């Protein structure tokens, strides 16, 4: 990554350092991972963080951590990040310098991990329970305790910071967390505002206890951010708003989604959409760097397990769709998965088809859970009268079986990676197993409890999930 030293930064930015590779605490000149153009206030926080590191004597060559103390455990969900749009995973734009550095450092990286579901709520339910949404509804594993509750039982301090407002549904997501903060809208904790909030959260951590920290970043979630001048791989442009259920008006998004653009307009718009999204991923990557620097400054990067993944992907014009939520195509479900266990005997991830639900087991136990093959994802959309429901199963030989709102589809992903030519479902491999899963998941389409909860509906509507 040394040959593209300043991807995405303004001309005034200093040369980017590969922040995570540096074991020393961050300097006090600013917030590491963020360029000074981002926001003036970061300098103050950088000073605070530096002062904490100095006064605490953290990371200054003191004695090694007591061996009996449990590792600090961190789950970072980069919301809405599809794997194939990361430079880390082969994308042609240099938008992940921080994560590229983590790979070079030896973090395990998988680029075809499977999200538990194509939108935020059911995926996070799976991260926090270790099971699919349908099972979580009757969750009684470990006495029905969420990951945070179990970690608290083990003596952990538990902290939660979500830039995704959809996770404000308190009783579902923040159970077991002692300290919580959730954004009120999709812009409140984007970009350089996130590390400021993280700093406040980490100040509240109990230094005597190991920490379970959950973080959700929405930098790649719509609205896509504006692209400033000076980015080497994209022209400056305004932010891009999505309103999936906009029914009138003449916004480019609406005109694209309703097929009103000429082919030339459509091609141009898709370039803007891709660039805006890719720049959002760049901002998420910068925040990964800021998070790791903040942890390091507090001595939390000595004995640790960290998962960095996404809750789902995003369609960028495939099948004439921009966004996510009720689509089960590959770009909406294939996510990156990064894992680092600082101990010598860390778990080895499977080479392919890693089930994102494994985040739960890796963080809790330091090893993979016994999840039956083959992997599958499920979808439940709380849309009241228009609930949509689906299930996807991937077979070991590269086929994908889909059930959506009662219809069945089958794709050969090797011969038809864009999922344009469905095959007859008859004769599909592992069809019996697929039908078992469909039968089990089908009833959940009702979703009465969520659909009737006005607060949830309001949040989902604001996020563009609900009409
Ligand atoms: Zn999400």
Distance between the ends: 43 Å
Estimate the global geometry from the Cα principal axes: globular
Contiguous helical run count: 13
**Unreliable segments of 5+ consecutive residues:** 1-60, 445-452
CATH topology of the largest domain: Alkaline Phosphatase, subunit A
The count of strands amounts to 13
Q: What portion of the residues fall into strands of 2 or more residues? A: 15-25%
CATH superfamily of the largest domain: Alkaline Phosphatase, subunit A
Question: What bound compounds does this protein have?
Answer: zinc ion
Give the total of domains. Answer: 2
Assigned CATH class of the largest domain: Alpha Beta
| Residue share in helix | 25-40%
Q: What about the largest sheet?
A: 7 strands, mixed
Q: By helix and strand content, what is the structural category? A: alpha/beta
Produce the secondary structure layout.
Blueprint: H1 42-56, E1 72-78, H2 97-105, E2 108-114, H3 120-129, H4 133-136, H5 147-153, E3 157-162, H6 170-173, E4 179-182, H7 193-203, E5 211-217, H8 252-257, H9 263-297, E6 304-309, E7 315-316, E8 322-323, E9 334-341, H10 358-365, E10 376-381, E11 388-394, E12 399-404, E13 407-412, H11 431-441, H12 448-451, H13 454-462
Parallel strand pairs: 1-5, 1-6, 3-4, 3-5
Antiparallel strand pairs: 2-9, 6-9, 7-8, 10-11, 11-12, 12-13
Helix pairs in contact: 7-9
Bound molecules: zinc ion.
